[in-house]
Amino acid sequence: MDDRMFRTAMGKFATGVTVVTTKLGEEVHGMTANAFMSVSLDPKLVVVSVDHRATMKSYITHARKFAISILNQNQRDLSAYFAGQIDETREIDFHWFHEMPTIKNALVNIVCELHETVDAGDHTLFIGKVTELIVQEGEPLAFFNGKYHDLVKSERVK
Length: 158
Description:
Blueprint lengths: L2 H8 L4 E2 L1 E7 L2 E7 L2 E5 L4 E7 L3 H9 L1 E6 L5 H7 L12 E3 L2 E3 L5 E13 L2 E13 L6 E3 L2 E3 L9
Antiparallel strand pairs: 1-11, 2-3, 2-6, 4-5, 5-10, 6-9, 7-8, 9-10, 11-12
GO molecular function, one term: oxidoreductase activity
Organism: Ornithinibacillus xuwenensis
Pfam family, one: Flavin_Reduct
């Protein structure tokens, strides 16, 4: 199989969208990621996958702390901005949570200490030990087949 077929197949897995942020010195750095998941309840661990070529790899490695904001459906522009799809410099008004920059009004803001790194192919898996989090109500920003999607609300099956 070629790379395009693999990417197409992986795009069939619907995900939420996150922005990963960290602070190194006085500078804030962020990137959009949908390769994110919970790993463990005890201890509370999450993982985010970062391409070896991404500058975020060095920032997280050196900062040893990072935050993850799970975006709501109204935050497509922030996802596009932190994915480098909007070619402009913006002044982002971060929500500072336990001295870490997070995205305001996200569904969830998570602060992590770097627990472990694992090189896996052309990416690094950053496993973070969750030290704090905030949860808010709302609908998630969903990503499927290379595009954003709104989820249709349906009644829960009882």
